[in-house]
Write a structure and sequence with these properties.
Blueprint: H1 2-9, E1 25-34, E2 37-40, E3 43-47, E4 50-51, E5 59-60, E6 66-67, H2 69-77, E7 84-92, E8 98-104, E9 107-108, H3 109-115, E10 120-121, H4 130-139, H5 151-166, E11 175-179, E12 185-188, E13 207-209, H6 212-217, E14 221-222
């Protein structure tokens, strides 16, 4: 029921018909966010079953030289920017993005990214692209041409570093004012679901708040969970 309610807010279920099955297909022009995230027809979309390196993530060549694999993965997906995509809804993630399989002219974008070595199979959620990842690794293309941290491991390390920064939060000011990828200003209270995962980057305009009233007056809204 929660999934249907969220879908209704996004326009996938007619108001008052939450008991009806949700249509799972949607279409729209593509705007690329990063190697596994898009905007399609105004909706934020996470490609199902793949995990691409983060935009700031670096990999290494076999000789140990660093190179921006996250930026390269984004550029690879940007080759379909502006094209029309057809997407099949799979789920909604913790950031309220639509998790979907999207195709352009019959080509599965997730499969293409994995086959080119610019993303890995996200086997935690699906084994759909595992064979393609193995083929890309055998061919030593994309990320597989050198050494890299799996994106999930890289994010975990970043969160660990962020936890050290969190310890330096101003005394009595533990509310996290986060800015999402879409620019939404959301604050997280201690004990909320995503509080521990949220890191604050003051250089990006994010900040700590001492009270909810302070956060609201500054233009932030409370996280839904």
């Amino acid at each position: 029921m929660l999934r249907l309610f969220l879908l209704s807010l996004l326009g996938f279920v007619p108001s008052g018909l939450l008991s009806a099955p949700a249509p799972d297909m949607f279409t729209g022009r593509i705007t690329v966010v990063d190697g596994d995230s898009l905007r399609v027809g105004g909706h934020e979309v996470r490609l199902f079953g793949i995990d691409a390196p983060e935009g700031r993530q670096s990999c290494q060549t076999q000789a140990g030289k660093s190179w921006p694999c996250g930026a390269e993965a984004t550029r690879a997906l940007q080759t379909v920017s502006g094209r029309q995509a057809g997407c099949q809804l799979r789920d909604i993630d913790r950031y309220d993005r639509l998790v979907a399989t999207c195709t352009v002219d019959g080509t599965d974008l997730g499969a293409w990214m994995v086959a080119q070595g610019w993303a890995l199979a996200y086997s935690q959620y699906s084994t759909r692209y595992v064979a393609l990842e193995r083929q890309a690794a055998a061919a030593a293309i994309g990320m597989h041409a050198g050494r890299f941290d799996r994106p999930s491991d890289w994010r975990r390390a970043q969160r660990a570093r962020a936890a050290q920064i969190d310890a330096a939060a101003p005394s009595g000011c533990a509310i996290k004012g986060n800015i999402s990828r879409s620019g939404s200003r959301i604050y997280h209270m201690p004990g909320q679901e995503h509080y521990a995962r949220t890191r604050i980057s003051t250089s990006k305009g994010e900040r700590w708040f001492c009270s909810e009233a302070e956060a609201r007056s500054a233009g932030w809204r409370r996280a839904k969970r």
